[in-house]
């Protein structure tokens, strides 16, 4: 192709002038770059299937002039690597988890505070608009990232091959795989576990070879990664929520003409709505499905876990790190935390 992905940002001004929806011949002359979207999500995850359908629709409606290619399952590297590629302009779009974004823009992790949200109503209100969403988007903007909306990756549970997690004591010393998230690392350390960061695509092998004793993730993600094949116990701790921001390199995004941005934004919005509905159904069906695959499932009382975090100073620490104003914005949706 005449214009490489790396060259796109450097030549975005020139490309933007040629980008309005035009005859297919313009693309053949190299006027329009093919853009890449990286994602850590497995092929079967609804974030992958719904976004792939949206990109197909964008391609069709623009008669091939807007061609965004999705690379799921960490094909373009780990989440930190994809964040770096996105900021440099090597890729134009990415799907990046709230938990891993915290390492780049700390405030991005605030929706994942342990036991903050117990249902989706206040969660989507917080993230689809309002003060908290605005603060997160502004924080991402400082790193040259344009944020669309968040796709769902669910409330997270613990799956292990060692023992069920019925109490805080059951976590003591367990090596639990977590994403590169300071918030989740802090949570499991406060509960006495030994969290370890492993790339999602490498987690199955790590659990199979006992490099890790278990992992924590949502039911659809546990199903999609097939880790139930090498683990035995699923404990419905619901300790944290995680989702994925759809992001663009802000310079590349602003270089696109208004009609192209409107078309892309409309289809991505529709994909988010579809993904959330699909994920909710998968989550509702997940426990029965995983039980049928042989997992032993329990639902512990969550209050002792929350109380242990209060005693460990977890909430006080993160209120200090996020700042009083951001914490107040969070509590306007969740109610008081850490009391």
What would you note in describing this structure?
The chain has a single domain, classed as 3-Layer(aba) Sandwich (D-Maltodextrin-Binding Protein, domain 2). It is an alpha/beta fold and 339 residues long. Strands 1, 2, 3, 4, 5, 6, 7, 8 and 9 form a 9-stranded mixed sheet that branches. It has helices at residues 5-10, 12-18, 24-28, 46-61, 79-88, 98-101, 120-127, 130-141, 182-190, 203-208, 219-225, 250-255, 258-292, 303-311, 314-322, 324-334; strands spanning 35-38, 68-71, 93-97, 145-160, 175-178, 194-197, 214-217, 233-249, 296-298. Helix 4 packs antiparallel against helix 13. The N and C termini lie far apart (58 Å). The longest helix is centred in the C-terminal third of the chain and has 35 residues, at 258-292.
Largest sheet: 9 strands, mixed
Which fold name fills CATH's third level, the topology?
Answer: D-Maltodextrin-Binding Protein, domain 2
Which H/E pattern describes the elements?
HHHEHEHEHHHEEHEHEHEHHEHHH
Number of strands: 9
Number of domains: 1
CATH architecture: 3-Layer(aba) Sandwich
- Rounded to the nearest angstrom, the distance between the terminal CA atoms is 58 Å
Return residue spans where pLDDT drops below 50 for at least 5 consecutive residues.
1-31
CATH superfamily membership:
Bacterial extracellular solute-binding protein, family 7
Tally of DSSP helical segments: 16
Helix fraction, binned, reads 40-55%
Sum up the overall morphology in one term: globular
Instruction: Decide which structural class fits the backbone.
Output: alpha/beta
Computed Rg: 21 Å
Q: Let me know the average pLDDT.
A: 90
């Amino acid at each position: 192709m005449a214009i490489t992905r790396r060259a796109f940002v450097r030549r975005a001004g020139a490309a933007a002038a040629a980008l309005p929806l035009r005859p297919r011949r313009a693309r053949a002359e190299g006027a329009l770059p093919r853009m890449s979207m990286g994602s850590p999500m497995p092929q079967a995850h609804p974030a992958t299937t719904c976004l792939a359908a949206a990109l197909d629709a964008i391609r069709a409606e623009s008669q091939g002039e807007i061609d965004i290619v999705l690379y799921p399952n960490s094909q373009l590297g780990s989440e930190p690597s994809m964040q770096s590629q996105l900021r440099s302009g090597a890729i134009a779009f990415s799907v990046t988890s709230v938990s891993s974004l915290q390492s780049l823009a700390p405030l991005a992790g605030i929706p994942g505070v342990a036991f903050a949200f117990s249902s989706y109503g206040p969660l989507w209100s917080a993230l689809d608009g309002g003060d908290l969403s605005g603060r997160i988007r502004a924080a991402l903007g400082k790193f040259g990232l344009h944020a669309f909306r968040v796709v769902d990756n669910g409330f997270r549970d613990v799956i292990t091959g060692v023992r069920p997690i019925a109490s805080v004591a059951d976590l003591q010393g367990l090596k639990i795989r977590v994403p590169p998230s300071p918030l989740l690392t802090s949570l499991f350390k406060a509960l006495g576990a030994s969290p370890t960061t492993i790339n999602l695509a490498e987690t199955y092998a790590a659990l199979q070879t006992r490099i890790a004793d278990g992992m924590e993730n949502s039911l659809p993600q546990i199903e999609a990664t097939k880790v139930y094949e090498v683990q035995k116990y699923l404990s419905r701790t619901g300790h944290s929520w995680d989702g994925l921001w759809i992001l663009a390199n802000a310079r590349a995004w602003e270089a696109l003409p208004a009609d192209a941005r409107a078309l892309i934004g409309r289809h991505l919005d529709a994909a988010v709505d579809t993904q959330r509905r699909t994920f909710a159904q998968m989550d509702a069906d997940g426990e029965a499905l995983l039980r049928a695959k042989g997992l032993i499932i329990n639902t512990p009382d969550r209050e002792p876990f929350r109380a242990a975090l209060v005693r460990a100073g977890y909430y006080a620490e993160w209120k200090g790190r996020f700042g009083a104003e951001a914490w107040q914005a969070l509590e306007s949706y969740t109610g008081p935390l850490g009391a």
